Amino acid sequence: MSFSPPSGQTPTTITRLTITLTKRIEHGDQGASNLANYSLVLLDQNDNRILFAGDTGNLVPHLTAQETTQLQSFMDTLYNRAVTQIIGE
What is the distance between the terminal CA atoms of the chain, rounded to a whole angstrom? Predict the structure, then answer.
């Protein structure tokens, strides 16, 4: 899936791309999940911020299968490191 550009304004600069990773561990009746969301800040030719429907969303549809697998592995590694270093398991 490709990112859809806004209409009506000409995007010229992406000033910020934020990626938020969330790993939820199964606990009680709460199911486990891995989430990856993005947020873009775009400016137009006049340096005005462009707000559009695709400026935030789920990152996963924009990734290849290999990138998704690598991202899940990265999240698992960070989680396991946090458990080891903080909880001591």
Answer: 39
**Average pLDDT in the chain:** 91
CA angle 1, 49, 22 (to 5 degrees): 50
Beta bridge partners of 21: 36
Show Cβ contacts of residue 42 under 8 Å, excluding neighbours closer than 6 positions. 6, 11, 13, 14, 15, 49, 50, 52, 55
* Overall size of the chain counted in residues: 89
Please tell me the distance from the alpha carbon of residue 69 to that of residue 84, in angstroms, as a whole number: 23
9-47 pLDDT, tens digit per residue, is 888 999 999 999 999 999 988 899 999 999 999 999 989
Instruction: Quote the CA–CA distance of 35 and 59 in Å, as a whole number.
Output: 8
- pLDDT of 79 > 70? The answer is yes
